[in-house]
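Fold Annotation — chain and its backbone

Fields — amino acid sequence, C-alpha cells

___
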Amino acid sequence: MTGVIPMTEPESPAPALRVSDDLRRILELAGGEPMSVEDIIRHTHGRGLQTIAIVLCLPFLSPVAIPGLSIPFGIAIAICGIRIAFRHRPWLPEFIAKRRISSAVLDKTLRFGIAIHTRLEKFLRVRWLGLVDSRQAQMAAGFAIALSAFLLSLPIPPPFPLTNTIPGFAIIMLCLGMLERDGLVTCFGYVLTVLSAAYVILIAALGGAGAAGIWHWIGTFG
C-alpha cells in the first residue's frame, strides 16, 4: 500500500490554523502549476484526515465541473471516513494519490473553497463536545462521512440537481465540526447526510420514467 501522509497523531482536536489557511497555502505553493492529490495532501502538513476529505470535496461544490472525479474522489473520501472512524493514519490508493489536477481547475476550485470556508469559519466555536470528543462520536462521524462519500460518488444522471452538493456539504460540516470541536456544526452534517440518503432513495424509487415526468412538470413553471 502507498502511504500518502504519515501523521504523528491520528487526531488533531484543536488545530491552530483553519482550513481556509490550508487552502491559501496550497494555492500559493501551486504557483499556477498542476498538482497531484498527493502533493495537495502533503501541503496540509499532517493536519489530518478531515482536512484531506474537505480538500477532496471542493471540486463537487465549485461551479467548475471536473469530469470523472466523482467516483475516485468519492472512494478516497470514503476511505478517509473509515480511517477517521477507526483512528487510522491517512492513506489513499496510488491511483488516486497520483491523479493530477490542472492548474486552471485547481486555482478556481481553491479560490472557491477559500471563500466558502472563510464564511463558515465565522460561525465555528467549541460547543456540544459530546458530539465530537468521545470515541463513539468520532466513529459515528467517520461512518457518516463514508456514507456521504458513497452517495456523492454515485453516477446519478441529469436532470437531478444537487446530487453532489448535498453530500459534499455534509462531509464538510462533519469534518469542520470535528476539527473545530463544534458539535452543532457536526449535527448539521448528520442532518445533511440523512437528507442526501433520502434524496438518493427518492430518485431510485421514482425511476427514469417518474423522474422525467416530474422534471417535465417542474419545467411548466419556468
Notes: Residues 4-15 have pLDDT under 50 and may be disordered. Residues 19-219 form one domain.
